[in-house]
Amino acid sequence: MDNPTVPFSDTTQFRPTDVASTIFDGEADELQPSTYTTTLSPSLLSDLKRFADEPGGTELLPVLAACVRHARPLALHLQHGRNVLRLSVFPRDQLFHCPENLCALPSFELARLRLVHVEPEALLAPFAPDGSRSSSLNFGALAPLLWLLALNGARSELLPEIAGTVRYRLAPGVATRGLPIEKCDMPLLQHLQGSPASLEELSSWTVLQPSRVRRLLNALYLQSGLIISRAFTVPPRDPAIDRPRH
Q1: 227 phi and psi, to 5 degrees?
Q2: Chunked in runs of 10, what are the mean pLDDT values of the chain (246 residues)?
């Protein structure tokens, strides 16, 4: 069942700690209270707060990127129409759980998803250390969801981690099997297997819109599929420094 609608706020709420949490143990329909303490690491919290004051609220994609970078499970509460969905993300296991099948949503609904609350995920990870399943919940593969949200979500600009004066190349051996790649995107992905290219070069080479190119780069970054070369410029020297002294 979906949670009731919560009012919009100017900024997304980030909960650093949750002392009295609830975890799933055994049956999916049986909730058992626990004193299991969950805490956002200071580095992850600092990373998330970079986006907390964005106009119109925090975008979902940068927060998902931070979740994947730090490999920490998060519970993301998403405004979906009149309801709020809880998206549980387990980056180490490359899995997610949500009561709604987000991968089946049409693109216009993915674009309308809004992040309203972030907290540490107190659900048990879907797999125990020995590899056995520790929950009877149904989990989905995270990689296709990240791909769809990058291509169809609200954000059309480059993620800050891959923006700037950089050149991009597809990482060798990146796993693309199982991703919902559209046929129109394949030529650009194949082109990225060659020499590194800047965003401007890629946009001039392909027939895709520049926003689509940016979205594809975001999608590849979330799959750990980009090699990024940054160009560093050396500031000009002050002629006074080189002037000979008498």
Answers
A1: -105, 125
A2: 37 41 30 39 78 69 92 92 92 92 94 91 72 75 96 95 94 88 95 94 96 97 92 58 57
Question: Is 100 in a helix, a strand, or coil?
Answer: coil
**Predicted local distance difference test score (pLDDT) of residue 30:** 30
Could you tell me the two tokens for 21?
């949490």
Interatomic CA distance for residues 97 and 117, integer angstroms: 16
CB neighbours of residue 233 within 10 Å? 6
Asked if 32 contacts 135 with a C-beta cutoff of 8 angstroms, the reply is: no
Distance of alpha carbon 40 from the chain centroid? 16
Q: Which two tokens stand for residue 34?
A: 């626990």
Residue type, 238: D
- Cα–Cα separations (whole angstroms), residue 234 to 118, 158, 168, 201: 40, 25, 21, 23
Distance CA 245, CA 238 (A): 14
Query: What was the pLDDT predicted at 104?
Result: 94
Q: What is the pTM of this model?
A: 0.76
Length of the chain: 246
| Pair 151, 216: CB distance under 8 Å | yes
Q: Report how far residue 102's alpha carbon sits from residue 109's, in angstroms, rounded to the nearest whole number.
A: 9
Give the pLDDT confidence score for residue 9 in this predicted structure.
Answer: 38
Q: How many CB atoms lie within 10 A of CB 131?
A: 7
Q: Classify residue 164 by its DSSP letter.
A: S
Query: SS3 for 12-45, per residue?
Result: CEECCEECCEEEECECCCCEEEECCCEECCHHHH
Residue 95's H or E segment, with its range, is strand 95-97
